[in-house]
Every structure is written in structure tokens, then in C-alpha cells.
């Protein structure tokens, strides 16, 4: 789960990260499955900027982070390269 890797010592992640309340299935869907629900949840999450920053800095390749899919993060990395 994302919150374990972002800030394990900070309990506020757990109360603020909406993915912690919904489960990981939305955020790590089977290949070809929709990420729409994960992105909708990210859109309401206060941690979105920090989560996306973490994923980009740590080159997270799988799942939805900070509201962006794997492909979208890859495109963002390439655009900023
Ligand atoms: S932005 Fe999305 S993936 Fe990141 S902590 Fe929030 S709900 Fe979880």
C-alpha cells in the first residue's frame, strides 16, 4: 500500500490517504482494467501532490499514484527529461 512506502512514521498518511480506506485493488488493477475509479479517488485526496512527487522521484512503475496511471507518469517523466 502506498502509505507504507511514503511515510511509515507519520500516522497522518493513514488518515488522509484515501487509498488506505478503499483498498489496493483500485490502484493496482489487472492489465487492461480501468483506472477510472482510482483516479476519481485520487482527485479527492489531499495527499495527491506529495504522492505523485514520491512516485516520480522513486520511479514507481506500477499502479496509480497521485492520480496518474503508469503511462501518464511515464509520459510526464519523458516530457520533463
Ligand atoms: S493520491 Fe491517490 S494513490 Fe496517492 S495517497 Fe491519495 S488516494 Fe492514494
How are the elements arranged and paired?
Elements: H1 2-6, H2 12-16, H3 19-22, H4 36-42, H5 48-57, H6 70-80
User: What ions, cofactors and ligands are bound?
Assistant: iron/sulfur cluster
Question: What's the rounded overall pLDDT mean?
Answer: 85
Task: Write down the Rg.
Answer: 12 Å
Task: Compute the number of helices.
Answer: 6
Percent strand equals: under 5%
**Given the helix and strand composition, which structural class is it?**
mainly alpha
Low-pLDDT residue intervals, each spanning 5 or more residues: none
Give the total of domains: 1
Largest sheet: none
**Could you estimate the helical fraction of the residues in percent?**
40-55%
CA-based shape = globular
SSE order in H/E notation?
A: HHHHHH
N-to-C CA distance: 28 Å
Q: Count of DSSP E strands?
A: 0
Can you describe what's shown?
Helices cover 52% and strands 0% of the residues. The protein is mostly helical. The chain has one domain (2-80). The model has no long low-confidence stretch (mean pLDDT 85). Bound molecules: iron/sulfur cluster (SF4). Iron/sulfur cluster (SF4) binds at residues 2, 17-19, 27, 41-42, 45, 47-48, 51, 64-67. Iron/sulfur cluster binds at residues 2, 17-19, 27, 41-42, 45, 47-48, 51, 64-67.
Task: Describe the structure concisely.
With 81 residues, the chain is mostly helical. Helix content is 52%, strand content 0%. Iron/sulfur cluster binds at residues 2, 17-19, 27, 41-42, 45, 47-48, 51, 64-67.
Amino acid at each position: 500500500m502506498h502509505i507504507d512506502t511514503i511515510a511509515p512514521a507519520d500516522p497522518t498518511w493513514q488518515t488522509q490517504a484515501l487509498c488506505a480506506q478503499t483498498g489496493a485493488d483500485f490502484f493496482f488493477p489487472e492489465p487492461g482494467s480501468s483506472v477510472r475509479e482510482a483516479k476519481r479517488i485520487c482527485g479527492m485526496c489531499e495527499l495527491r501532490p506529495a504522492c505523485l512527487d514520491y512516485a516520480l522521484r522513486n520511479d514507481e512503475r506500477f499502479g496509480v499514484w497521485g492520480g496518474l496511471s503508469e503511462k501518464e507518469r511515464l509520459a510526464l517523466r519523458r516530457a520533463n527529461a
